[in-house]
Structures are given as C-alpha cells and as structure tokens.
Write a structure and sequence with these properties.
Elements lengths: L5 H36 L5 H10 L7 H14 L7 H14 L8 H12 L1 H15 L1
Length: 135
C-alpha cells in the first residue's frame, strides 16, 4: 500500500514502528506499576481487578496519556481519509513530547523517569523508542 510518495511512506513506516514500540513499552510499564502496586496494597487477584485498577485507580493514572496516544495513532492510521505527512509528523512530534522522563516536571515525567531508573527493560525500551523518534 504505497502512496507513491517515498517521504510519506518512510514517515508512516516510522510511525508504525513507534506505535509498536509504544505498545511494548506500555505493557512493560503496566507490569512494573503492577509490581509496585502489589508491594504497597497487596496482591491483585484477577485480570479483571487489574483492568479496573488500571482504568480507575490513581496509581495508574500517569499511564493514561500513553494509552490514549496509542489509540490516537490507531484512529489516524485506520481513518478512511489518507494520512498526510503533516499528520504523521505531528504524531511523531507528540510522541517525542510525551516520552520525556524527568526527575522534576509533571507527574507523568517523574513516574516515567522512576520506572526507567528501577527497571532495566524499561530503560532499554525507552532507548529504542527514542532512537525511532530521533530519525
């Protein structure tokens, strides 16, 4: 499904790769946060309970922008209207803004920074996403 525009094709490929990397990162972050939650509150008894906590407990609130962003990418990519290079570049720019860990900053930036510091797998995934976004 080539657009006959090499620049657009390359950008869409990059966006697809970023989306896939974000899915893996989000899953790892959820699992990491689950471990922390269980250390603090006790064992989560089922997948249903975990889902309810992810959706509704403040412990997991900081992860919502990542999941919402993945949905945003999916909506753009599955739209009946062709994706423009401007839309794809805007999504990549938003991903760069979203994934900025910091010791000081927003709750999300701080919690993301902490996750990277405590979990080498998350640090590696962050590095991989950053490389994809640097292109």
């Amino acid at each position: 499904m080539s657009s006959h525009n090499p620049s657009l094709d390359a950008t869409l490929q990059q966006l697809r790769q970023v989306r896939q990397a974000l899915l893996s990162l989000h899953k790892a972050l959820l699992e990491s946060e689950r471990v922390g939650y269980e250390q603090f509150y006790g064992r989560i008894k089922s997948k249903g309970e975990f889902f309810q906590l992810v959706v509704g407990h403040e412990w997991f609130d900081w992860l919502h922008p990542i999941s919402q962003f993945i949905v945003q990418i999916d909506e753009v990519m599955s739209s009946k209207e062709p994706v423009t290079i401007n839309q794809a570049n805007q999504l990549l720019a938003e991903a760069r803004m979203l994934l900025q860990p910091s010791e000081e900053g927003t709750t999300m930036q701080i919690r993301y920074y902490q996750a990277i510091q405590r979990d080498p797998d998350i640090a590696f995934m962050h590095s991989e996403v950053s490389k994809l976004l640097a292109r």
